[in-house]
Amino acid sequence: MFDQKKYQDIYRTLYLIRRVEEEIGRIYPSDKIKSPVHLSIGQEAVSVAVCSALDERDAVFATYRSHAAYLAKGGNLKEMIAELYGKQTGCAKGKGGSMHLLDPSCGFIVTSAIVATTIPLAVGYAYSLKLKKSDSVVVVFFGDGAVDEGAFHESLNFAALKKLPVLFVCENNLYAIHSHFLTRHHSDNIFKRAASYGMASECLKEDDLGVIYQRTKFFVDQIRQGSGPAFLECYTCRWREHVGPNDDFHLGYRSEQEVSHCKDNDQLKKIRAEIEPSVIKKINQKVEQQIEDAFIFAEKSPFPGKEELMTDVFKD
Amino acid sequence: MERILTYPQAILEATKNEMSRDESVVVMGQGVDDPKAILGTTLGLLEEFGPQRVFDTPLAEDGMTGVAIGMALGGLRPIQTHIRMDFMLLAMNQIVNMAAKMSYMSGGRLNVPLVIRSMIGKSWGQGPQHSQSLYPMFMNVAGLKVVAPSTPYDAKGCLIAAIRDNNPVIFIEHRLLYYQKGPVPEEDYTVDISKARVLTEGSDITLIGVSSMAVECLRAEKFLKEVGLQAEVIDPISLNPIDIETIIKSVKKTKHVVIVDNAWVQAGFGSEIISRLWENGLSSEVKVKRIGFAATPCPTTPTLEEHFYPNAKGIASFAYAMLRPKEKAWEPSTKLEIEEIEFKGPF
Ligand SMILES: Cc1ncc(C[n+]2csc(CCOP(=O)(O)OP(=O)(O)O)c2C)c(N)n1
Ligand SMILES: [Mg+2]
After folding, report:
1. A273 pocket-lining for ligand 1 (C-beta < 6 Å)
2. What tens digit of pLDDT does each residue of B295-341 get?
3. B107/A158 Cβ within 8 A
């Protein structure tokens, strides 16, 4: 499916994200990260596949569950960990935290803790690109919960109406916190609803990185040529609890089996199988070092001083 | 000869000025390109600047506010319109959770140059859902600027300043102000959107009126003159931040202040001003009074509506009672020339 270099790039990113989040989980009980974390473990393939099909000029909007998308788009790792630690050197000087990661320097524009709020922002951003006759594409990630919100529908309608260069990517992990999609909706047909607004739309049920990459590439090329928006519904699976680093099978809203079934389909393992073990070893070593450096950087960085409280409310 | 424009003409002129000067300025909202053109304030923009920069929107206040914020992040300077402020309630999520927070929660890496114009309705049966004036809600939010100029001169200067501002600005227009005429220079100018304006000077009492209530205060000032009292009328213009220095200076002189909200009294502009006066050491020696909407939804029938809103006569009566506590109550008699007051400057 990919050439060896692409396999290695994809593996490196997948492994980085998995390991960073495992480290976050490991450090979490120390309370050095004093804010909620929504881990993407199990869902990384969607972010990595989609972002691998983008260029630097493309823009990404996402949610509070964005560690994966941030890193997949090339976000600065040190600034991310420092942000989780609430440090001055964080990507938002500690004023945002895990739910508000951003790195505009690589096109990772906005994330938000309010469900569905970045969808219209992505659409507006796409409007500005179209007005500037730019050939960049906007991608917005959101969960199945966002489909419940009015802003989702309002945004799709407007994007289709104005033929805007935006790819909507729904990470359907079946749950909004602990509520199953079918307790919130009559039918399991998200992608069909998107299509009804007037855009190309597909549902990818198999959570296969290669397939997601291929379909993203296809749609992004079309969008660049002026097709207007497109929609990808990607079934995926969150392995850990909704918020925090642990399992949550004791809650009983889903079975351990449901998740272990997903774990059998781990895309990290699948991609790893395409690469020489000696190469894997090298990549892993490098990534581990990078992660260690990032945590040390965060630990050593200063907290923002009191004078920072009042800055950045307005821009001059 | 001074050039006289109406309030909506001033708004249109400011918009045209900025759209011609800066390609990134875009106008969007329900009906901006229809024949009525937001009571004339967007008239001709479509023809002059084209449908990409002037466009009608679906009836999707929350989503379209998000779209406007996204446009601002992408380098545009959108002006979004709401023909009635009541409809902004559907956009509170995007305004409060997103626009107001973007700069801060990004550590200053992002900012949202966005103007949201909205109108307050009144009379002829606007009723409970077409007459609300929700600025106290926005005054309470860090990260928003809120302006409500009352004169055509300030409408033009403040709107230009708001468009050039790098932050979200809630720009509030009262429908009754649309009948106001006043001098408006043709050239490009800005008015500082963080400063109040003293409309008339006086030494006996300070009258502060928000938006169209500044005009009611000017009328009250005329009534008061007839009984020998000199009122200083202030248009606060900026409701967030508040130019408290200008108000303190006036109240130190007059020792009496009536604050007329264009909204319900509780937790309103008046409440905020009185708190600030106290915090600044002006307490026992100053007499204060807040006036505003009755604590009810706005009734539709005129006989009830009449009692719902403050008016010039009522303001004058309060002022009189405050200044002449020992004398019996006074109510001015109706005078047509005062009813039809237009603000003429000076600036
Ligand atoms: C507007 C809004 N309502 C409720 C919440 C509380 N909340 C936080 S996450 C979440 C679940 C969202 O589920 P989904 O969109 O599927 O994303 P996932 O967490 O599964 O990635 C909810 C309801 C919120 N943050 N914002
Ligand atoms: Mg979900």
Report:
1. no
2. 999 999 999 999 999 999 999 999 999 999 999 999 998 776 666 66
3. no
Give me the helices (H) in chain A, please: 4-27, 44-52, 67-72, 77-84, 118-131, 150-161, 181-184, 190-196, 209-224, 256-263, 267-272, 277-300
Whether A42 shows a pLDDT value over 50: the answer reads: yes
The predicted structure's pLDDT at residue B347: 44
pLDDT greater than 80 at residue B126: yes
**Residue B135 CA to its chain's centroid (Å):** 9
State yes or no: pLDDT of A212 exceeds 70: yes
Q: What pTM was computed for the model? A: 0.97
B194 touches chain A (CB under 8 A): no
Q: Which of B63, B93, B166 sits opposite A158 (nearest CB)?
A: B63
Category of B270 on φ-ψ map: left (φ > 0), alpha (ψ -120 to 50) or beta:
alpha
Ligand 1 atom with the shortest distance to the CA of A65: 21
Q: What is the pLDDT of residue B233?
A: 98
- Crossing angle between the packed helical segments A77-84 and A4-27, to the nearest 10 degrees: 20
A114 in contact with ligand 1, CB cutoff 6 A:
yes
**Hey, what's the torsion of the CAs at B245, B166, A98, B95, to 10 degrees?**
80
pLDDT in tens, B179-209: 999 999 999 999 999 999 999 999 999 999 9
The answer regarding whether domain B197-340 maps to CATH 3.40.50.920 reads yes
A234-278 confidence digits (pLDDT tens): 999 999 999 999 999 999 999 999 999 999 999 999 999 999 999
Asked: is B4-183 a CATH 3.40.190.10 domain? The reply is no
Question: Counting one residue from A and one from B, how many pairs have CB atoms under 8 Å apart?
Answer: 146
Residue nearest to atom 11 of ligand 1 (CA): A176
Architecture field, domain A42-76+99-275? 3-Layer(aba) Sandwich (3.40)
Q: Is the ipTM of this complex over 0.90?
A: yes
Q: Which residue numbers of A have CB closer than 8 Å to B's CBs?
A: 61, 90-96, 100, 102, 104, 109-110, 112, 114, 117-129, 131-132, 150-151, 153-155, 157-158, 161, 311-316
Residue A96's identity, in one-letter code, is: G
Contact between chains at B70 and A315 (C-beta distance less than 8 A): no
- The answer, yes or no, to whether any atom of ligand 1 lies below 6 A from the CB of A67, is no
Domain boundaries, chain A: 42-76+99-275
CA–CA distance, A304 with A94 (Å, rounded to integer): 7
Beta-carbon neighbour count of residue B244 at 10 Å? 17
* Matching fold, domains B4-183 and B197-340: yes
Task: Cite the active site residues of B.
Answer: 61, 130
CB contact under 8 A, A120 and B65: yes
Say yes or no: CB of residue A158 within 6 Å of ligand 1.
no
